[in-house]
Design brief:
9 helices; binds NADP nicotinamide-adenine-dinucleotide phosphate; seven-stranded parallel beta sheet; alpha/beta; 17% strand
Amino acid sequence: MPTPCSERGRFRDQSVVILGGNAGIGLAAARLFAGEGARLALTGRNAETLLAAGAETGAITRVADMADTGACAAALAAFAGALGPIDVLFLNAGVGGFAPVADVTEPFWDQIHAVNLRGAFFALQAALPHMRDGGAIVVTGSIGSVAAVPGNVAYAAAKAGLRAVVRIVAKELLPRRIRVNMISPGPTDTEIFKRDAAEAEIAAMRAMFADVVPIGRMGEADEVARAALFLASRDASFINGVDLYVDGGCVELG
Ligand SMILES: NC(=O)c1ccc[n+]([C@@H]2O[C@H](COP(=O)([O-])OP(=O)(O)OC[C@H]3O[C@@H](n4cnc5c(N)ncnc54)[C@H](OP(=O)(O)O)[C@@H]3O)[C@@H](O)[C@H]2O)c1
């Protein structure tokens, strides 16, 4: 029998920072990292859920909006001060938003890009002086960046930009032996697609995704988080610059 992830201790005594660690995929990852011995730090926007995530996982926490580059930089410096050099950065925070091309306004575009691309890039940049050489960075993208989904243009463009960022940062960090990889989830059952939706709409979306996803269902946050831990761990020591689709086969089989 393979040893369950939670008993393997791959991150024992490592400093792990998750930006966007108080809900969904980030919270699932926080639970797994904590279970594998990491010293953990989390950010999010929602102070209440962040406090609860910290209490559950033993993480130190700080409210920091990804759109606020100064707040993120301050959080990263504070985490490194408290935990020591960062071994693993999981840059996961992201927001969704749908509008057909004709309806995309500049504020709508800017709000998505401020978090998903601009905020993510400058957080990554701010983290670099605090990263330990030989560490790992995992960034959450989306299969939206390679799928022609009507209404998804602003989000897809931001995540596609982030994919380009990952490739170039991975190359620039080769001398420091810091691996930089991306996970790109397919439809995953988290708050991001349920927010502001009625129960009937959520049920309809689940049924639609069951039809669309080759594996026949949405993913669970935990399934995506496990892929992030894999890329962050020594199990992935020869993997660098990739975008791993964690999508039930959507991209390759859809
Ligand atoms: N679920 C999917 O189907 C799916 C598919 C493809 C890609 N993704 C990507 O997966 C990542 C995680 O999403 P999820 O599905 O787990 O959604 P989620 O449950 O909504 O979680 C999003 C996380 O990001 C944080 N966050 C969002 N905006 C932020 C901001 N401005 N500043 C700081 N933190 C912020 C949230 O914190 P607060 O709760 O405090 O705002 C939360 O921790 C995102 O990058 C998303 O684009 C998700």
